[in-house]
Amino acid sequence: MGRIFLSAGHNLGKGGVQSDPGAPTVLGTTETNEMIKTRDLLVRELEFRGVKKDQDLFSVPDTIDLKSTLNWINDRARSGDVALELHGNAGPASARGAEIFYIDGNPQRKRDAELILNTLIEAVPGLRSRGAKPDTISQHERGLAFCRQLRISSLLIELCFLSNDEDMKLLNEHRDKFAKGLADGLMKWSNQTGDIPDSFPSIDIEIKGQIHQNKGILVNNNSFIPVDLVAPLSIDLTKLPDARRLKHGNIDYVRAIDLQQLNVSVAWDNQIKRLILN
Ligand SMILES: [Zn+2]
Questions:
Q1: What's residue 193's pLDDT?
Q2: pLDDT for the residue 191
Q3: Looking at residue 51, what DSSP letter applies?
Q4: 22-66: pLDDT as tens digits
Q5: How far apart are CA 13 and CA 16, in angstroms?
Q6: What spacing in Å lies between the alpha carbon of 190 and ligand 1's midpoint?
Q7: How far is the CA of 89 from the centre of ligand 1 (A)?
Q8: In terms of CB atoms within 10 Å, which end of the chain has fewer, N or C?
Q9: Residue from 189, 223, 210, 165 nearest 83 by CA
Q10: What pLDDT shows up at residue 16?
Q11: Rounded to the nearest 5°, which phi and psi values hold at 185?
Q12: What is the pLDDT of residues 88-132, one digit of tens each?
């Protein structure tokens, strides 16, 4: 079983300095405080299910910002672990429901997202589903850092609309149901990821119509290609400081999907397990 990392979205700052309260709610509270309360209940629900805190389950400190959150998780995470960040949505007063974001182009992560969202919706009567969505159609069209910059499987969920009376009533009066639904989903998700081996499946790489001798690897269903192969595409990796890199068997790899930011087309042929770059 993979371990679970939880983050309550936004942060309290240190001593109120550099805090990021997130969106205001119709109850006059802040997104951060609502998410911390929900996360605390979720931790308890996971403990009821036998998950041990600080051993199988880690809560990111509520005082640190997003960048530090990513580092905090990456410093501790092992292959097979999962991470979920909790948020509340804001929009027109009539907008309602939960939605979840996954890294665009990763069908496995999409299934993980649907699993978590569906379990939540089943557990909270009255909560509407807005679906599982690729992170490129979030407010950030280049994707969400929490979905992209962690070295483990990660998802970002918007539990409900903080700007809607009924949604806030649901969260406030049935927070335990939100916590139970999320706990059930996380148990299933982390159970599926536990046995990722230290060696990774290899994949063929085709660049501009040519299949290369050197192979890539699949890690958590993300394709990684050797950095050496990137050179012929005249790509300057220094322009991608946030691209996910990893070292495996003395070879440096970069995550293929990150190359899209430099206008490389990245496609995956699942039938022949081949990554196609142009
Ligand atoms: Zn938020």
A1: 67
A2: 85
A3: P
A4: 999 999 999 999 999 999 999 999 999 889 999 999 999 999 999
A5: 5
A6: 23
A7: 6
A8: C
A9: 189
A10: 66
A11: -65, -45
A12: 999 999 999 999 999 999 999 999 999 999 999 999 999 999 999
11 C-alpha to center of ligand 1: Å?
10
Q: b vs e for 138-167, b when ≥16 Cβ sit within 10 Å of the residue's Cβ?
A: beeeebbbbbbbbbbbbbbbbbbbbbbeeb
The highest-level CATH class for domain 4-192 is alpha beta
- State the pLDDT at residue 70: 96
Q: How far is CA 263 from the centre of its chain?
A: 23
- How far does residue 233's CA lie from ligand 1's centre (Å)? 37
Coil, strand or helix at 146: helix
Token pair for 123: 């557990």
Interatomic CA distance for residues 53 and 50, integer angstroms: 9
Going from the Cα of 191 to the center of ligand 1, the distance in angstroms, rounded, reads 27
Residues having C-beta closer than 5 Å to ion ligand 1: 9, 22, 87
In the reported structure, the alpha carbon of residue 60 is separated from the centroid of ligand 1 by a whole-number distance in angstroms of 15
Q: Note the pLDDT of residue 194.
A: 52
Per DSSP bridges, beta strands 245-248 and 251-255 are antiparallel
CA of 258 to the centre of ligand 1 (A): 24
Alpha carbon of 29 to ligand 1 centroid (Å): 13
Give yes or no for a contact between 79 and 152, defined as CB atoms under 8 angstroms apart.
yes
Hey, where are the domains in the chain?
4-192, 202-277
> What does residue 89 show for φ and ψ, rounded to 5 degrees?
-90, 160
Helix axes 165-173 and 175-192, enclosed angle (nearest 10) = 80
Q: Residue 34 C-alpha to ligand 1 middle, in angstroms?
A: 11
Cβ(5)–Cβ(152) below 8 Å: yes
Pick the closest to residue 178 from 155, 156, 157 (CA basis): 157
